[in-house]
Amino acid sequence: LAKRLVLSETEVIRTLFMKGIMANINQTLDVGTAKMVATELGYEVHAPEVVELALKTEMIEVDDLDKLQRRPPVVTIMGHVDHGKTTLLDAIRKSKVAQGEAGGITQHIGAYHVDVEHNGQDQQIVFLDTPGHEAFTAMRARGTKVTDIAVLVVAADDGVQPQTIEAISHARAAKVPIVVAINKVDKIEAQPDRIRQELTEYALVAEEWGGDTIMVPVSAIRGENLDTLLEMILLVAEVEDLQANPNRTAKGTVIEAHLDKAKGPVATLLVQNGTLRVGDIFVAGAAFGKVRAMVDDRGARVDKASPSFAVEVLGLGDVPAAGDEFEVYLDEKQARAIADQRTMDQRQARLIQAMASRRVTLGTLSEKVKEGDLKELNIILKADVQGSLEAILGSLAQLPQREVQLRILLSAPGEITENDISLAAASSAVVLGFNTTMAPGARQAADEMGVDFRDYNVIYKLLEDIQDAMEGLLDPEM
Ligand code: GDP
Q: Could you cite one Gene Ontology molecular function of this protein (predicted)?
């Protein structure tokens, strides 16, 4: 089951445990229990009899399942401002990457990797080096998960702060395990135990206190205990059992992208499955690309990048957005068609957004009148019956109209239709409804075209709003 879910056995066993089922790794689960576990872990179970499971991450596909190999963890450093995230990132990099290695200058591409000797093997850890959780959150909001482990930095002289708590929530929401780095222990005011104490309030209990959260005291500035921190990250990675299939076409996420005057569009791609090679044809977001050259985080030209590694790639036709997914295609025509389609979709989305931001409301109209740009307030009025229409029109006519004139573009009994909305959009009018409803499609049209419609069932309320708006239109000085 764990294999089908692309999760560690521990996670499945933990879920069972939470449900009061003590299971060991060799036990057989019945279909009902397996279904319950899968649902609990956020999967959709399609056919309960067969327990066919939709894969949680799109990065790993069913065909990969029997070809998975271990991959390095991708780590994000999070924590409150000034607690030492940047210093820690720099210190780790410096401690592990010899200056001028691979003949290049170390360069910032949004991620770097370090080599760590662990269990007698040379292993890697990849750090996303945009500190703070903004990038992390932005990517997660777009449904992309790039981080495997979060290192939560807490300054030992300052304790848990608002962004510390935010970081914990973000990591939890993304189901990313947390390793705590208690930083600045070199300071006289440092009180590492106070940090451990404060973190218990957020259900992070240090291992040495009988909990299951690894907490490592470090001094980023002096480079102290960084090896232990790295060791612990690899330990957590082992438990997480991070895997990917390196023997397939690459898939992953754009972690940075910009337009370089000399090189054209440049993007840093984090490979999350498969292997990316020079010459590969890919689509990143809505951009078509062909890998012309790749540079790793140490400034070295490389011809391939395997799972969990980030490379800066040249050869894109356009600049994708950070958080966009990328995927390699064997068929260039297909890739171009996908990129074109997405470009069109994006244009349309932008158009809709632009229209919505030009939304005309009583408030925006009032602003314009204040600036002397508008002398007329356009109204479309729909009401349940002719009688109420006449009553409303009669009262509106009695409102003082010296500064601003009311212009009734249309008044009719009946529901608010898409046509009313387009008329309003075309003439910067607001739509007023009295005891009436919206026709199917009208509400969506109003959203898309940025039309303000107001719904009333008491006449004096409608009059009051219009009068307020018209008085708001008047210059208060006059
Ligand atoms: P960030 O905002 O979390 O990225 O924090 P910075 O890395 O910019 O660090 C904030 C301040 O704390 C800087 O002045 C650092 O020099 C200092 N600092 C960071 N780590 C340590 C440390 O281990 N010990 C001491 N004493 N100061 C540190």
A: translation initiation factor activity
